[in-house]
Amino acid sequence: MTVNPYDIDAAARYDKALHLSQKRYPPPAGVISPKPTKYWPEKNITLLREYQRWLLDGGASHNCTLNISIPTAGHVLGLSLKSHEELCLEQDIKRALGYIEAREMSAVWTTNCRRALHRFRRYLQLKRGEITFSPYPRFDLGRYTTGLPPWLVEHLDQIRIVRQGNWRRTRLHQALIIFWRTHTQLWRWLFENDIISAEEGPEGVCQIRRQHLYAFIDARMANGMSSKTINLEMRTFQATLRFLQEHDILVPQSILAMRG
To answer: Taking CA atoms, which of 88, 125, 164, 230 is between 20 and 30 Å from 29?
Structure first.
C-alpha cells in the first residue's frame, strides 16, 4: 500500500533519519551531531512540518522531500536549537553543511544536501519576508496566461515556486520566461482550439485525448518548431498533469504514457 507523504510526520521522519544515519555512518570523532526533535523549541517542529507541506504542495518529489530536504533542514535546526526566528542563516546553515561534509558521504549526496540547504535557506528568507518569489515587475505574466483559467494558473504557479528556489538570481527573468512559455504553450493551444473550456473547471482535463496532442505536434511542426522544443513542451505538460493528479484532479492516464 502506497503511503501518502502528507501523512508522514516531518518531525518523526527527521528523528528516524538522524538515528539511522548516525548508526550506519557515524560522524568522525569531535564532530558535533544534531539533536533529535525532543530537544527543539516547539515552533521549530511546527516549522519543519510547514516546510514539508510547502515542498509537497509545490510539487517537489516525495522521495527528495522525505529523504533529503527534511533531514537536511532538520540538521540546521538540530545543531542550533534556537528558535528559527533567531537563526543566523549564514552561520547556522554553514554549520549544517560542515556536519554533512564531515561525514564524507558520496559526492552526489553531498551536492544534493547542499542544494537542499540552499532551498531551506530561501524558504526561511521567504517566511521572514526578506525575499519574494514574485516575478520581476517587468515580467509580463499575462502574455503567457491569457485565456487560461485561474485554477490552472494557480497550480502552475505552485510548481514555479518550488522550481524558482533553485534559479540563479541573475537569470531569474530569463528563467521565468522559459518556465511560463514551456508550461503554458500546450495548455493555451487546447483552450484556444476549444478542446477544453475554462468554464468546465479542472474536470475538463479528462476530455484531453492523444489525438489532440498529435494535432498540437503537427501544428507546432508546421510552424517550424524543432523536435527538441516540442518534446520539452510535451514533457512539461505531462509533468503538470502528474502534479494535478497528486492534487486530486483526474487526468487521462493514456497521455502520461506518451513518449516524445
So the answer is: 88
Please name the residues in contact with 150: beta carbons below 8 A apart, sequence gap of 6 or more: none
187-239, pLDDT tens digit by residue? 999 999 988 888 888 998 998 999 999 999 999 999 898 988 998 899 999 99
| Contact in structure between 76 and 22 (CB atoms under 8 Å) | no
Residue entry with cell 512540518: 49
DSSP class of 36: P
Name the strand (E) or helix (H) holding 14. Answer: helix 10-24
Place of cell 527528495: 64
pLDDT(25) > 90: no
Cβ count within 10 A of residue 206: 13
Q: Name the one residue in this structure whose C-alpha cell is 507541506.
A: 53
List all residues 6 or more positions away from 91 whose beta carbon is below 8 Å from its beta carbon: none
Per-residue pLDDT tens over the stretch 99-155: 999 988 888 889 999 999 998 998 898 888 886 655 444 677 888 888 899 999 999
Decide: helix, strand or coil at residue 8: coil
Cα-trace Rg, the chain: 21
**For residue 49, with 0-12 CB atoms within 10 Å meaning exposed, 13-18 middle and 19 or more buried, which class applies?**
middle
Confidence (pTM): 0.56
Phi, psi dihedrals of residue 31, rounded to the nearest 5° = -90, 125
